[in-house]
């Protein structure tokens, strides 16, 4: 299981759509991901409030590490 978390500024709605489509394409490609699948978590934050982005990252990371899955991989990307 791969979990990708993305934190977007409120003005980055198109980036969110591109991110979701890219993950969907990867999940459909069995040559890249034979048995694994990617799940995503997207959060929107105020781009003028970096503290909020850090808090959201912490929540995403803690949510991810609470999984009991042995092959869990976490990546968080911030888009501002």
From TrEMBL:
<dbReference type="InterPro" id="IPR043373">
    <property type="entry name" value="IGluR_D"/>
</dbReference>
<protein>
    <recommendedName>
        <fullName>Glutamate receptor ionotropic, delta-2</fullName>
    </recommendedName>
</protein>
